[in-house]
Amino acid sequence: LRRISFLEAEIARSSGDYAQAAILWQRFLFNHPKSELTVEARFKYAKVLIALGQQGQAAAELELLAGKRLPQTTGYQVKMLLAQGYQTTGQPEKALRLYQSLLKKALPGTPQAALLDLLVCQIQAAAAADSSAVKLYLQLAQKHPQSLAASVAYCRMGELQEAAQNLDSAKALYTLSTQSKSNDIDYPEFSGTRAWALKKIENISLLGGYRRQLDSAAAEQNAQLLFLMAEHYLFGLGQPDSAVSIYLKLASGYPSLPIAAKSLYAAAWALDKYQRDTALVRTYRLELVEKYPYTRYANAARMEMGLPPDLAVSDSEPQIEFKLKLATPEPETLAPTP
């Protein structure tokens, strides 16, 4: 009877009916608390709860298992899943202790040890200042060279350098990330690291092209390039703060150009969509109406503030047709591997 109950729960789980599987696993554990299948049933019950988003209850079930004497492989899987649950529920200290306890038992130099070192490093780096985080990731990359752990470490260092606008350093680190192995650790969270680093390199190269052109372009071209950079930060890189900063820089630096009104409007739009800062959004919309009252963007701002539009407005959309010609890059010693 208990095997039938176990199989019923397993069939529900395999068919994707996690809610029904959770009910059946719970019933099995209540009716057969000391069965030889209890450990496996509780572990599968916890994974179903995680799939249902019930992280707290899943952690409670895993904690019951973690306190038992289990086979080595099962014990490792239980503690790894429990640590992930702690991270998901905002308990990094508990997750760190579990990863460190598993690391003590792992064989040095193995993919398992590299993975645990990486998970420990990520938690420690998240709680550290940027400079300290870079040192932690660098130590990890040096400890496990040419591994996925090293690839992730270089990628995280690249992200920190990119956030600080050190784009050349960021690009070099992303390049190092692409040169490490990407398949020595089976861990879904890190499986796309190399592809992510390659995308970052492409984005930084594009931004670098914009920056180089800014040094020599005329005022109108400068303004167009700034607008393109802001758009790339917003829609390409998903960095609305950087985009808003450039939109406002454009509006204040080139107030006489038609694109200035569009930039002010874009800044207000981005703030409204991504930050929900209604007071600041209204400030920029009012500034737009005051400085550029006879533009379509002023009319759009009026309507978004619940004001009537000015029917006399007849301006045209500012053209942004600047074609960027990037120079062919010189060979790099840190070129990504094919």
* H/E series: HHHHHHHHHHHHHHHH
Determine Rg (CA atoms, Å): 27 Å
Q: What's the overall geometry?
A: elongated
Q: What's the total number of strands?
A: 0
Task: Describe the model.
The chain has 338 residues and is mostly helical. Helix content is 70%, strand content 0%. It contains 16 helices and no strands. Helix 3 (38-51) runs antiparallel to helix 4, helix 12 (219-236) packs antiparallel against helix 13 (240-253) and helix 15 packs antiparallel against helix 16. The protein starts with a helix and ends in a 34-residue tail after the last helix.
List the helices and strands and how they pair.
Layout: H1 2-14, H2 18-31, H3 38-51, H4 55-66, H5 72-88, H6 92-105, H7 111-126, H8 130-143, H9 148-163, H10 167-178, H11 193-214, H12 219-236, H13 240-253, H14 259-275, H15 278-291, H16 296-304
Helix pairs in contact: 1-2, 2-3, 3-4, 4-5, 5-6, 6-7, 7-8, 7-9, 8-9, 9-10, 9-11, 10-11, 11-12, 12-13, 12-14, 13-14, 14-15, 15-16
